[in-house]
Amino acid sequence: MSETQHDAALHEAPVLAQEGPSSWLVYTTGLVLAVILTATSFWAANTSLLWGPGIPLGLGVLAIAQMGVHLVFFLHITSGPNNSNNALALAFGVLVVFLVVAGSLWIMADLNHSMMPAAGPMNMPMHH
Question: CB-based contacts of 122: which residues, under 8 Å, 6+ apart?
Answer without folding.
Answer: none
